[in-house]
Design a protein that fits this description.
Layout: H1 3-8, H2 43-48, E1 51-52, H3 62-69, E2 74-77, H4 89-100, E3 105-108, H5 129-135, H6 138-154, E4 159-160, H7 185-200, E5 205-211, E6 226-227, H8 232-238, H9 241-248, E7 253-256, E8 259-260, H10 273-280, E9 287-290, H11 296-299, H12 304-314, E10 319-320, H13 334-351, H14 356-373, H15 387-394, E11 396-398, E12 411-416, H16 431-435, E13 440-445, H17 451-461, E14 470-475, H18 481-493, E15 498-501, E16 514-516, H19 522-534
Parallel strand pairs: 1-10, 2-3, 3-4, 4-5, 5-7, 6-8, 7-9, 12-13, 12-14, 14-15, 15-16
Antiparallel strand pairs: 11-16
Helix pairs in contact: 5-15, 6-7, 7-9, 12-13, 15-19, 17-18
């Protein structure tokens, strides 16, 4: 019998977890049947209990159902698992998963703002971290956490991989940006704690990420190995405090980052025992989840299977396998992404390289989280928040002469100057075009048009003064040369244009009419329209 046979073998399902056993492993004998003292009969369940894969589809595939019956820790939902046209689909999917494993952890990246899975098609209705940090009302951030928790709980989800606790100190950071509460350590710490408290008031586990701090990187760890060229003392002063605030707030989970901190060694912190020891020294004893094992720092070096082994040996508890539909997993199906990790753990456990006590300790933490999430709610706060109004209050308007407004005959020319999408958020619809639905919108995509074509279109829109359009230019980076070039071209052709900045806001005014929205989602787009109409 092979390791693959073992994880599909029909094992009994019960409410207890093998993780509660406390015996120490004896010397392991490599035996593919898994029946020796060092390789016990519950080894397949034990291995499954630390794996959190993704899957394809809006129902439970057969391989996943079998693995869940055999102790799989749970799953992570991605946008392709959500049918936005079937409101009950997600909760039914969650119920089917728990029918196979009542203790399943069901996770999702639900940060609010730019990063949402449950509302990915239409955009998040909850402001993101940068908007909340700009507003700097921790009570409002706590209410946003409750809204995220309620959204997850209604969908049968008991883990949201949020909030982002990174301090975004590098304006060139390609993956954090507006996902962070800000650049100030104390502010980020306060809002991280508030978000954790709000989320967990719904018995949904929060997961602070990306420990020990992804905020001072210039590489996206989805696509490359990211380095933080700071000393440990600098990290301790500027980047660790929000994670300590999350610990103090009782956060149920943390996510380790695929970043290299030279003083801790050249291994990514997910695979580095020194990094998890640093976290445990901060008083944290909850679940440590890896960032996705299909990301470049692991996938392109040791590979997801070996990465899973090293991550457990480094002190992680739950292995996030990743999104099987990511472009870099082309040619792989969802089951093979899971079995690659399972088979590597099985081989390491049967050889004795991966001690059973490591697996049992990790599984115990995971099961404790699942059992906590199943507990009764205390009295739930009844928030009635106008999140569009909150996002509008967070907007910053830079207007050198007069505040910008929507003018003319009710027509709008919207130039989309953005040059790509954040890997964490994924591609999205143009929420601003949707929010402008009551206007006649002409959408110009700068990525598909030459500068001359954009200029001609803008000049044509202004040819008839009686019916001239308002001109809006949408960007998400004020440090992108390409986006700034389109912006300058637009202002030259239409001096009355207004820049809508969905990225990081600079400390000083831009010098041209700008609405800084601190993110790009349904709620921020609606807020921008409200600001423009009321100005």
């Amino acid at each position: 019998m092979t390791s693959r046979d073992l994880h599909h073998a029909p094992l009994p399902v019960n409410g207890s977890s093998p993780a509660v056993k406390s015996e120490r492993p004896t010397e392991t004998a490599a035996n593919p049947t898994g029946q020796t003292a060092g390789n016990p009969a519950d080894l397949p369940r034990l291995i499954n209990s630390v794996i959190l894969p993704g899957f394809v589809g809006t129902t439970v595939p057969q391989w996943l159902e079998t693995a869940l019956h055999n102790g799989l820790a749970g799953v992570v939902y991605f946008s392709h698992n959500i049918d936005p046209d079937a409101p009950e689909q997600v909760s039914a999917l969650s119920a089917a998963i728990r029918a196979a494993n009542p203790n399943a952890v069901i996770g999702v990246d639900e940060e609010g703002g730019n990063v949402t899975r449950l509302q990915s098609r239409d955009g998040s209705t909850i402001p993101g971290a940068a908007a909340l940090g700009s507003l700097n009302e921790p009570s409002t951030t706590q209410a946003a956490g409750r809204a995220i928790g309620r959204l997850c709980r209604d969908a049968g989800i008991n883990l949201t991989i949020a909030p982002v606790a990174d301090v975004n100190t590098n304006p060139l950071n390609p993956v954090i940006g507006v996902r962070a509460f800000g650049t100030d350590t104390a502010l980020v710490s306060a809002h991280t704690a508030a978000a954790v408290t709000g989320i967990q008031s719904l018995r949904v586990a929060a997961c602070a990420k990306h420990f020990p701090g992804h905020g001072d990187t210039v590489a996206d760890s989805h696509m490359d190995t990211a380095r933080v060229e700071l000393t440990l003392a600098q990290m301790t002063e500027s980047h660790l405090p929000p994670f300590q605030a999350a610990v103090d707030a009782g956060v149920a989970a943390m996510m380790s980052a695929h970043i290299i901190i030279p003083e801790l060694g050249e291994a990514p912190t997910t695979l580095n025992p020194a990094a998890s020891a640093l976290l445990r020294d901060m008083g944290y004893d909850g679940v440590l989840i890896t960032d996705a094992l299909d990301m470049a720092a692991v996938r392109a070096t040791v590979g997801p299977g070996e990465g899973g082994v090293l991550a457990l040996l480094a002190g992680n508890d739950l292995l996030c396998v990743g999104n099987p539909l990511n472009a870099y997993t082309t040619g792989r199906d969802d089951e093979s992404c899971y079995t690659e990790v399972y088979d590597a753990l099985f081989a390491a456990a049967t050889s004795g390289r991966l001690p059973l006590e490591v697996l049992r300790r990790a599984a115990a933490r995971v099961q404790a989280l699942a059992q906590w999430s199943a507990g009764a709610l205390t009295e739930e706060a009844d928030d009635d928040v106008d999140w569009v109004a909150v996002a509008a209050r967070a907007c910053r308007v830079d207007a050198p002469s007069a505040k910008p407004w929507l003018t003319g005959s009710g027509s709008v020319t919207l130039v989309d100057a953005r040059t790509g999408h954040n890997m964490a958020a994924g591609p999205t619809e143009n929420f601003l075009a949707t929010a402008l639905g009551s206007y006649g919108v002409t959408l110009l995509d700068a990525a598909e048009l030459s500068g001359a074509e954009v200029e001609v279109a803008l000049m044509q829109s202004q040819a008839d003064p009686a019916g001239s359009s308002s001109i809006l230019v949408l960007i998400d980076s004020l440090v992108s040369a390409q986006q700034l070039e389109t912006l300058e071209l637009a202002f030259a052709a239409a001096p009355q244009a207004v820049c809508i900045n969905a990225g990081l806001a600079p400390a000083s005014p831009t010098g041209f009419a700008t609405v800084h929205a601190h993110g790009f989602s349904r709620v921020t787009a609606q807020a921008v329209v409200r600001v423009l109409e009321s100005a």
